[in-house]
Amino acid sequence: MIVYNKYINGEDFTWYDSSNVIFSKCYDNNSVTKTLKIVFKNGRTYLYKDVSTDDYVAFKTASSNGSAINTYIIKKYQGARISDTDIDKLQELQNNFKKDEDKLNNEKLSNIVYHIDICSKTGEIQMKMDNKPVYTAIEGKVSIFDILRAMNIRYSYSEVDDIKNETDEQDEEIKL
What we know:
With 176 residues, this protein is α+β, with helices and mostly antiparallel strands. It has 4 helices and 9 strands. The radius of gyration is 20 Å and the shape is globular. 15% of the residues are buried.
């Protein structure tokens, strides 16, 4: 079960309350595959490449991540053991994320100013807050969901058959 999640600049940091999995970090390769690092409670860390988005989401959102890791990750993808992760530093990272969120939540939204750098040669854009990158993308290939996650804005969505753009320009009175 997820206890804390932070998505920033194409990286999904997730902490779990699980029998054996404590943390995962997912890198957005593209919309189809991900690179996934998983840290177990003892600090052992494994890297899985080319994990399907569906398998990653199934693992991440499962009610039992310990069982789901076997079903959706270990049995399907070859993992490589990498350097162990310092659990204390992992906890410090989570605390720093929470402090940043608390700071952000305590500021008035009207006072927040984002700066955007644009590279006209490559079309790359980078949104920064307090001179720290919070989102990087290619102009014209930007997802509203990625932007909302980067800005840590909660949202819900629904799939619909049609989006109606209703205006009152043809009405004789203004709808309030």
